[in-house]
Task: structure prediction
Amino acid sequence: MKRLALAAMMLFAACDKQDSKLDKVPHAATGGAGGASEGALRTLESRVRTLEAANTVVIKPDGPDAAPLAERMRRVEATIVKYQDALEFLNKVYAQQKAQQDQQEASEPDPTATFAVDIAGPLKAGQVEGPNSAIITIVEAWDYA
Amino acid sequence: MNMVVHPQVVQDAHLLGCAAAKQKKFLEYKHAFWEKGFGAYAASGGKDKASMGEENILKFSAEIGLDPAKLKADAHGPECTKRLEEDQAELAKFRVNGTPAFFINGQFVGGGIPKEAFKQIIDEKLKVAQASGVSGAEYYEKEIRGKGEKQFRSKKAGAGGAPHQ
Result:
């Protein structure tokens, strides 16, 4: 029995060693603590509303900010029109270069690939340098011997 | 291992090389051709095309102990003609259309590259081959022929693909 009690105490001590994070959350049923939390939430909501109000720009068509904004928009549009030709040209050049690059890459062998060239013919014919047991095989393609 | 891409340029040299191999003197022939055939052609700035022609090749082949009559007969026989065609067909599968070109344990190397770059590739391939535990006699057939690409694969198609080691 003593042993059991000791074990139960140790277990309890182990469980009690670290507080749960939930322990600090007040329960609604506990009364006072719940009221404090509602109050804190209300304060937070109020602060968020104040911040929203301070950062919302409302531009009315006839308001004081309308003219500068319209003017800025007009300038942006003018700039776009001014550079439209250049942008179209650049797009064409880019498309051409991309197509060329794609074509070139499509014609180049994959540098990471291992190509299984059949060497049985040259081996059988004796067109070989070095022993057939060599661990490195170099296939040479020449336009001269 | 020697293969030919454009036999029309050096058809005589390749056919006679095949014939020299039949007399067990491929290496001697190859070295002599580099020196007295292509070497002479290159030294003339490409003017002396006759140095790579059959007449000159037969001449220096006799000097290295080849039987010129047999060499000529074998070179124009069906076996060597077929060999040439087979080489071309095999290289065409991998779209080798320029020379020199090499495959070092299956890795394509196009054009001339510095000796050090060659050495680096060979050293890398050597490490991979030694780590495989496969014997030299079996390595090419088992690891390169057995697991490698059987035809051309482009750089574009290969992007993202798993490299074979």
Q: What stands out?
A: Chain A touches chain B through 38 residues (CB under 8 Å).
